[in-house]
Amino acid sequence: MKFPGKGLLDGVFVTVRNFVGSYFEKDRLVTVQYPEERVSLPENSRAFPFLVYDGTPDKMRCTGCRICEVECPPQCIYIVMDRDEKGKPLQRPKIFDIDISVCMQCQICVEVCPFDSIKMDNDYEKSRYGRFDELMVHLPDLLKSNEYYHKIKPAEATAVDAKLKAAAEKKAKKLVSPAPPATGTTPKTA
Amino acid sequence: METLYQLLISIKTDPSVGRWLGFAPDWGLRAVAIVVSVVLILAVFLTLFAFLTWVERKTLGRIQNRLGPNRVGPIGLFQPIADGLKILLKEDIIPRGADALCHFLAPVLFLTVSLMLFAVLPIGRGLIAVDLNIGILFVFAVGAASVLALFMGGWASRNKFSLLGAMRSVAQIVSYEVPTVLAAVVVLMAVSAAGKQGVGSLSTVSIVEAQAGGQMNASGWFIFQPWGLVGFILFFIGTLAESARTPFDLPEAESEIVAGYHTEYSGFKFALFQMGEYLVMIAMSGFTVTMFLGGYLGPGVDMPRIGWLLSIFWFLAKLSIMIFLVILARGTWPRVRVDQLMGFAWKLLLPMALVNIVAFGFWFYLGSGARGWFASATVLVVAFALLTRGGASTRLGKRTYRYSN
Amino acid sequence: MNTAFWIISIITVLGAVLAVTLRNLVHCLLSLVVCFFGIAAHYFLLRAEFLGAAQILIYIGAVAVLILFAIMLTRHVTGTEGPRELGGKWWMGASTAGIIGVLLLWCIRREALTAVLPPGDKMQGLVAVIGKALVSEWVVPFEALAVLLTAALVGAVVIALEETVHKR
Description:
The complex is a heterotrimer of chains A (about 190), B (about 400) and C (about 170). In chain A, helix 5 packs across helix 6. The N and C termini of chain A lie far apart (about 95 Å). Chain A has helices spanning about 5-25, 65-70, 110, 140, 145-150, 155-175, and strands at about 50-55, 75-85, 90-100, 120, 135, 145. By secondary structure, chain A is an alpha+beta fold. In chain A, strand 2 and strand 3 form a beta hairpin. In chain A, strands 4-1-6 form a 3-stranded mixed β-sheet. A 3-stranded antiparallel β-sheet of chain A has the order 2-3-5. Chain C folds into 2 domains: about 1-80, NADH-ubiquinone/plastoquinone oxidoreductase chain 6, subunit NuoJ (Four Helix Bundle (Hemerythrin (Met), subunit A)), CATH 1.20.120; about 120-170, no CATH class. Chain C is built from 6 helices and no strands. The interface of A and B includes residues 2, 11, 12, 19 and 29 of A.
């Protein structure tokens, strides 16, 4: 039965139910009390890049090819390849710097990396106490293990591992039984 | 207990108390009485204001499915202290073209006027700062004077938003004063009906005492009569409008007009405006309790030695309920537009207030039993139905197009 | 004639003088409000508390607000205006004020003004006496005033309505 003012009274009942219920039903309050509690982030969330290593930090997947540095839109990556005494490039970076204040988390570096070595991290608590030098992240801070990668992004890490294993097996098979020389005949042009 | 009673209450009326205090002259006794009353009012109600900001934020949070502030002290109890410190340390900015004297005086005047309201609020049996025999008229006069302080604040800022907000605030308060005063008139009529020789009084204490008697000192309250219930609703809406609380907070809504008349105020002057507003809210809630909910009356108030303590407790309990209702109104209802605001006051509340007076006449002349109760209730319900057109929708009908097809 | 009387009188007269001499129109209004407060204080001194509160409620709460709206709607918003032209006509105002002052003084000193009050303590229950007199002995002027006010209200509404109709 509608009477003038019924809408107002219904509103009051909703509010009072909310107020009283917030003391008795635990799931009514949606506040996440940061920093004691944290919201669990979904798997595809991205915050800042990190470099993956398999096992120990010197077995990093990154070869210093500098494709991510070239493709990065705000140009926040700086890579210098490690060279030995004779100047021959070792397939690993000596310097790998990413600037937090410039990186826009676009994930393009992840998409173009041919070695699946740079991935996006979930860790957003990257505040520092300085405004200039402290915002540049260097190579030791960027390296994180494959187990960590599995922990934050299980599905993606599993897929990457499977892909890498398949590629390694294919390469191993090729080395063991070399393919017969190609009998490719050039088509005769008349 | 006895000394407390003497210090608080009988010092004003009983000259023999002076001997206990050792004051020989009469003026010394009165000075002590005045100082005690003023200090008590300032201490109690300013602390209540600080505590009220915390209560409001926690209550609004719970209504909105979130916690309120809970970091600063245990469950956030020191939050008002943190707020006070913050606002004391803020820079006081005065716009260059502003009228410096008016800009300075406006919050001062507003706070003074808001504090004056507490002089006639009866907190307990015998506990009133000044028992003026024009109590309720003083309340409305002071409320009218606060209008000017708001205008001064808005005009002195030399800001179009401030001026517009001040004008809207003035229009709102002046419009809603009319049904409020008429709702109070019904109470005064009831007081004089209950008084000797049909002569009533405007004093707030006599309004409370007219509701005494009845079971548990509770059934004599005016809210249990139909004209009292309608008067209570009207006065409650008037409370919300006079202190510019949601749903009538158009003059200071952030999404509408930046901050209305206190846009250009920063630092402690802003805090003074907020303090004045909250104090008006507390005082008007107190007057609602006094006029309709029986003031400090409750079971056990007539007991000889501790009755007056119980009366304080009853008054504070009822005041808490009223303040909770005001905060609930803020969390529940959306803001009205300025034309809806005016229409509501002049087209619904004012006629209802006038009909309320007529309904009281029915109740008075048909006797205060069931017959009078039902007669006045019928008058009110019929008038409400007619005024709201039985809840007929104000939506437009189906559109007809004149030029197409 | 105690000190309170002198202090309140000085404030009232100062407010009134400032109200006619200040440049800024809104400042004039605010000093007029101070003058109204002073008059209300005089009423309280004379133990006519009802009149004092009614003075605050009506003059400051309504009349001052009305003047305020009139200023806001008709003047430049800052309230200042150009130099006022009074010229040599100051004697007109002075003579009018003088004549009215003499008339007022003569009226106040007559006895007929206090003849309507009942005997006894003149201030006790004055409001009840006025109220009873208004509805018994003076009911015809009371109702006539009510009709006059209603006519003024209806007239104001009609004028405002006409303007909106013309605008369309």
